[in-house]
Structures are given as structure tokens and as C-alpha cells.
Specification:
This protein is mainly beta. It is built from 1 helix and 4 strands, in the order ββαββ. 13% of the residues lie in helices and 34% in strands. The model has no long low-confidence stretch (mean pLDDT 89).
């Protein structure tokens, strides 16, 4: 979902996945390079979320994740609106 918050002057994007299984505690490090959940069989080397974080921060934005074990995860990005 993409939304615009004119009051806070940000644009935000969030993506939820009820099948995403993010182990408890990984929320703090999942945006660091090469971090992957133990035992995952998904392709990749752990750079995708790190790249998203670097791009967002380069534009004075931020990223995050809210995860509920067994229920999935919601990843979000917030970027400031242009003046």
C-alpha cells in the first residue's frame, strides 16, 4: 500500500506477507547486509533489504518491519515529500 501523509510530509509504502516467517529477534538486524534467517531455502544472499535501507536513508527516509510470529510480517519504507 502506498500512502501520503501531508501532515508529517512523508510518503510511505508497506508490504505485508502472511507467509513471511521472520524469526523473533531478527527484526533488529534484517536490514543489515548478508543477514538471512537460519534454515531459509529462499534464493538470495541477504542484500535486498540492506539495499532498500541504504536507498531510503540516502533520501533521508527510514525503513522498518513489524513481525508477529506465525502471522507474517509487514515491511515499510517512509520517504520525505519533496518541498
Amino acid at each position: 500500500m502506498v500512502s501520503k501523509d501531508s501532515y508529517r510530509h512523508i510518503a510511505s509504502y508497506e508490504s505485508s506477507d502472511t507467509s513471511a516467517r521472520l524469526p523473533a529477534g531478527l527484526e533488529r538486524t534484517v536490514f543489515e547486509p548478508y543477514v538471512r534467517a537460519a534454515g531459509t531455502h529462499q534464493p538470495g544472499i541477504g542484500l535486498g533489504l540492506a539495499t532498500v535501507k541504504r536507498i531510503a536513508e540516502a533520501h533521508h527516509g527510514r525503513v522498518g518491519v513489524q513481525s508477529t510470529p506465525g502471522q507474517g510480517a509487514t515491511f515499510w519504507v517512509e520517504l520525505p515529500l519533496a518541498a
